Amino acid sequence: MKGDRVEIVIDAGSGTTRTYDVTATRAGRRVVVTHSRGTVEVSEVTRGGSTVRTARFLANRVLALVEHPAGDEPTPDEITPTLRTA
């Protein structure tokens, strides 16, 4: 859903951290997090399942991964008009 956001904080070495954000930028897209074989992958995915963009991080460098779900109320461009017949 548009507005879904995942915030990733990684250890950049020498005691510093870096923060990355992956956000669902359009209506119908969502953010998916997968963890496998020592990597954390955060992807923006369309309704049909196609990956739009991906961010990959080494799992041992990830300090925090925070998911921020979109609000319950859909934004105006996500509302699908319905026809009413009287």
Describe the structure.
0% of the residues lie in helices and 53% in strands. It has one domain (5-78): SH3 type barrels (Roll). It has strands spanning 5-13, 16-23, 30-36, 39-45, 51-58, 62-68. The strands form two sheets. It has a three-stranded antiparallel beta sheet with strand order 2-1-6, with no helix packed on it. The protein contains no helices and six strands. It is mostly beta strands. The model has no long low-confidence stretch (mean pLDDT 81). Strand 1 (5-13) and strand 2 (16-23) form a beta hairpin.
Strand residue content = over 45%
Summed up, the domain count is 1
Task: Indicate the mean pLDDT.
Answer: 81
Mind telling me the C-alpha Rg? 16 Å
Protein structure class: mainly beta
**The first-level CATH class name:** Mainly Beta
Q: What is the second-level CATH architecture? A: Roll
Shape: elongated
Order of helices and strands: EEEEEE
What ranges have pLDDT less than 50 throughout 5 or more consecutive residues? none
The neighbouring-strand order within the major sheet is: 2-1-6
Range of helix content: under 10%
Number of strands: 6
Q: What would the CATH topology be?
A: SH3 type barrels
- Give the N-terminus to C-terminus distance in angstroms: 32 Å
Count of discrete alpha- or pi-helical segments spanning 4 or more residues: 0
Largest sheet geometry: 3 strands, antiparallel
